[in-house]
Amino acid sequence: MTIQETAAMLQTMDRVLLLTHVRPDGDTIGSAAALCCALRDMGKAACLLPNEGTTETYLPYAEKYWAEEDFQPDYAVSVDIASLSLLPENAKKYADSIYLAIDHHPSNEGFAPHCCVLPEMAACGEIIYELVKLLTPVTPDIALPLYVAISTDTGCFVYSNTSAHTHRVAAELMDTGIAVAGVNKALFRTKSRTRLAMEAWMAEWAEYYDNDRVVIMQIPLSLRHDYRATEADIEELSSLAALVAGTDCGVTLRELEGGKVKISLRTGPRVNATEVCALLGGGGHAAAAGATVSGTLSEAKQAVLQAIDMVVGE
To answer: Tell me: the pLDDT tens digits for 276-298?
Structure first.
């Protein structure tokens, strides 16, 4: 569906429940919060399904829109969700009834009968912005979470997915009068002592492959327990491996409860992250993608190295 078609559909909908993905980031939370605010400004009943994985970083943007337990939606809309496997536990009951999916991942599985999937957008927040402009005035209450969505998914506008359109949208959001300096400092220039200590450990024990072009960093459960790290401490650690000079494929392996490992890739043009993660049951973007596999950290490492070899073909 186009932006115009999706906006027209949203105008006909009421009692809307917005779904965000597991281990929510700034894009899914910011996009859903902004759309919820816009729908309410239109006089519609709209809420976000509470997501228990929301960290203190993003909670202020979402909690005022959480649905009450007795909220009965007529429509469920997923925001920034590429696969049903990314639904939080409390959202799985809506898996078969998602009416509209709004997303920017090229790996979107098309699980909803109506989909607005635009991979050319750097963030789902860019799609929401274009939709909101057709629905209602973009107020500061809408602009701020959208700025969070777009800035976080572009690494404060430095990732390769950042486009001229991205900058134009950010400028127009800033024109509403939102204060972005504090947001930028909190999101991109502030780290807890625990976060810094974990980064040091990960860098010290990093492993290099493929003539040092592939770097693998790990976050074992024991590391989180030893440092008493919160989800907020762990946020964005997946981007650390890609910062190493001379590498074009940064891999982060995060050990989860229940014998699973979350694999995150940040890559350059040589390695298509989406294709690698698709071989592992995941997806994402060409330069940033992820997957969750069963097994140990060692098994996950071997699996991702094999997938990289298959995609690169060297």
So the answer is: 999 999 988 889 999 999 999 99
- Residue 216 DSSP SS3: strand
User: Which pLDDT tens digit goes with each residue over 109-156?
Assistant: 999 999 999 999 999 999 999 999 999 999 999 999 999 999 999 999
Instruction: Report, in angstroms and rounded to the nearest whole number, the Rg of the chain calculated over CA atoms.
Output: 19
What's the confidence (pLDDT) of residue 104?
97
Structural tokens at position 283: 């997806």
Residues 6+ apart with CB under 8 A from 24: 51, 53, 54, 55, 58, 62
Q: Report d(CA 138, CA 52) in Å as an integer.
A: 28
| pLDDT band at residue 314 using 50, 70 and 90 as cut-offs | low
Q: Nearest 5°: phi and psi at 87?
A: -75, 135
CB of 265 within 8 A of CB of 271? Answer: yes
CA distances from 44 to 67, 102, 114 (A): 14, 18, 20
For 133, residues 6+ apart whose C-beta sits below 8 A from its C-beta are: none
Q: In the block, which residue shows the tokens 């699980």?
A: 111
Q: What is the dihedral of CA 218, 224, 229, 230, to 10 degrees?
A: 80
Distance CA 238, CA 88 (A): 20
SS3 254: strand
Q: What is the pLDDT of residues 230-246, one digit of tens each?
A: 988 998 899 999 999 99
For 245, the token pair is 């000079």
- Cα–Cα distance list, 214 to 123, 226, 242, 270 (Å): 26, 27, 9, 11
